């Protein structure tokens, strides 16, 4: 049993209780700049490797109810985070067997290999162990050739070993013409250097990313994802979501699919924030005469719903604070962009942010997640009958269970939104007294790392969700697809 689930490439290390440095080593020169880590694995509360393996039946069925309960009490031990996250994010069905998961894992690895091979035909640097940090084509698709690799030097010395963008420009250009639509190939290749620049900035305090091979692995995964999801492509902030998965999951293909599932989960909740935020400021502030060029698409619909949700929560719970923020021209709540975009990676230390993520994912877990993500099992969502509701409810996370019971299905009212609302509420007096402009709100929110513990912050978020009166929930609940809808 242990060997089947322990062979997925997770970094299994022996460490004393609470010694996070053995899992996430910090570069010596960065020690002083790294915030204090508050999360510590606690015996009897944190999901340990022993309790994780004990949660599987002989043939591999996972007791997800027991696992969720443990995670909600004390998170996941670093030695098993990666493999646990695969279940929390819907990569695998807890009802499946070891053999079924192994078969699915092999299929996905082959699929990732095929996707990566497609990308390599268009950009040979993919899979080379190197990565690109300078533009390789112009906007009209013409290759940019550099006299030597020295032209690729970046401010960060770790990017100096990146290869020349083209090993053979003419050959690569032929692949764009023959293998893929011009528009898709050009659009994708224009992203590659930006992905590389963000890779260089990703968790640079960690020893793990001193290795160019590890940086290249992150670049490969992000680049292949941008190729797979052409509609979204790549957005700044995706690197912050993907980086921990590269660290926790050794096999690149497994890390990719874990990230892909995270993006499915966060797509409407996070990435649309980026598009709306960018276009709002770019067009409305820098080019006010071109406002008519802005078009509302699926990306802006998602963010408008999220921002509207946050606005309605504050309006229902603290009308005075909401009105004050509106008077400061903050009624759009765009100042919450960063927190929601990268799931509080900037507000907590690396270790604490991961703990916060797994708390949220466990509390929002729905047993129908896997089937809703698998196109081949699309009909599975309709197969659950009313008779099994009670049994399935027990397999939901704490936050999701309440939503399912009450029929509250707003996909935009995630725990993250309530967590942001709770932060604003705790700063109520300071904002009302000291905030004279929107800049004061932004500065206060981004001034320091949050000093409160993740679990305490999460509890405040849940308490905030409970404060929303029923009439407020009716306003917030805009409907939409949600795994709980099958109930």
Could you characterize the architecture of this molecule?
The chain is mainly α and 487 residues long. It has helices at residues 2-6, 49-54, 64-74, 81-88, 98-122, 169-179, 182-201, 212-228, 238-248, 252-286, 298-317, 319-327, 337-341, 350-363, 369-373, 389-393, 398-406, 415-426, 428-434, 438-446, 454-467, 470-476. It has 22 helices and no strands. The radius of gyration is 23 Å and the shape is globular. 43% of the residues are buried.
Largest sheet: none
Residue share in helix? 40-55%
* Sheet/helix structural class: mainly alpha
Shape: globular
Number of strands: 0
> How much of the polypeptide forms β-strand, as a percent range?
under 5%
- Using only CA atoms, what is the Rg? 23 Å
Mean residue pLDDT: 78
Outline the low-pLDDT stretches. 7-18, 149-181, 268-302, 376-388, 478-487
- End-to-end separation in angstroms reads 33 Å
Q: Could you give the order of the helices and strands?
A: HHHHHHHHHHHHHHHHHHHHHH
Descriptive key words:
single chain, 487 residues, mainly alpha, globular
What's the short version?
The protein has 22 helices and no strands.
List the topology elements:
Elements: H1 2-6, H2 49-54, H3 64-74, H4 81-88, H5 98-122, H6 169-179, H7 182-201, H8 212-228, H9 238-248, H10 252-286, H11 298-317, H12 319-327, H13 337-341, H14 350-363, H15 369-373, H16 389-393, H17 398-406, H18 415-426, H19 428-434, H20 438-446, H21 454-467, H22 470-476
Helix pairs in contact: 3-14, 5-8, 5-10, 7-8, 8-9, 8-10, 9-10, 10-11, 11-12, 11-18, 11-22, 18-21
């Amino acid at each position: 049993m242990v060997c089947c689930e322990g062979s997925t490439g997770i970094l299994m290390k022996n460490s004393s209780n609470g010694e996070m440095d053995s899992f996430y080593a910090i570069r010596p020169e960065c020690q002083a700049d790294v915030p204090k880590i508050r999360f510590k694995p606690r015996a009897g509360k944190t999901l340990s490797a022993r309790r994780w393996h004990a949660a599987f039946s002989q043939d591999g069925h996972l007791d997800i109810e027991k696992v969720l309960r443990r995670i909600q009490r004390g998170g996941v031990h670093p030695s098993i985070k990666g493999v646990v996250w695969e279940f929390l994010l819907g990569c695998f069905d807890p009802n499946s067997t070891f053999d079924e998961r192994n078969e699915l894992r092999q299929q996905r690895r082959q699929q990732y290999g095929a996707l990566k091979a497609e990308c390599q035909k268009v950009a040979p640097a993919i899979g080379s162990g190197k990565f690109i940090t300078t533009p390789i084509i112009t906007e009209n698709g013409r290759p940019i050739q550099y006299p030597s690799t020295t032209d690729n030097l970046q401010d960060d010395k770790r990017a100096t070993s990146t290869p020349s963008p083209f090993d053979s420009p003419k050959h690569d250009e032929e692949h764009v013409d023959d293998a893929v639509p011009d528009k898709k190939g050009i659009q994708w290749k224009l992203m590659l250097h930006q992905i590389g620049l963000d890779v260089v900035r990703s968790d640079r305090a960690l020893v793990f990313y001193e290795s160019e091979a590890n940086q290249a692995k992150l670049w490969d995964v992000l680049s292949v994802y941008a190729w797979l999801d052409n509609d979204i492509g790549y957005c700044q902030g995706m690197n912050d979501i993907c980086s921990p998965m590269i660290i926790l999951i050794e096999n690149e293909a497994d890390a990719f699919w874990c990230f892909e599932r995270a993006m499915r989960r966060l797509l409407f909740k996070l990435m649309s924030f980026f598009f709306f935020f960018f276009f709002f400021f770019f067009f409305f502030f820098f080019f006010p005469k071109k406002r008519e060029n802005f078009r509302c698409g699926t990306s802006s619909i998602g963010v408008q719903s999220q921002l509207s949700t946050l606005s309605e929560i504050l309006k229902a719970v603290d009308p005075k604070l909401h009105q004050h923020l509106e008077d400061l021209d903050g009624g759009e709540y765009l100042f919450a962009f960063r927190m929601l975009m990268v799931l509080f990676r900037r507000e907590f230390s690396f270790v604490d942010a991961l703990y916060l993520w797994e708390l949220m994912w466990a509390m929002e877990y729905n047993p129908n997640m896997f089937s809703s993500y698998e196109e081949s099992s699309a009909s599975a969502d309709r197969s659950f009958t009313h008779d099994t509701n009670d049994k399935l409810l027990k397999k939901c996370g704490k936050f999701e269970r309440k939503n399912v019971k009450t029929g509250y299905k707003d996909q935009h009212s995630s725990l993250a939104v309530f967590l942001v609302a709770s932060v604003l509420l705790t700063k109520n007096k300071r904002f009302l007294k000291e905030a004279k402009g929107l800049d004061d709100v932004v500065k206060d929110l981004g001034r320091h790392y949050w000093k409160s513990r993740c679990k305490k912050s999460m509890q405040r978020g849940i308490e905030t969700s409970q404060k929303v009166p029923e009439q407020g929930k009716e306003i917030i609940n805009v409907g939409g697809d949600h795994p709980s809808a099958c109930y």
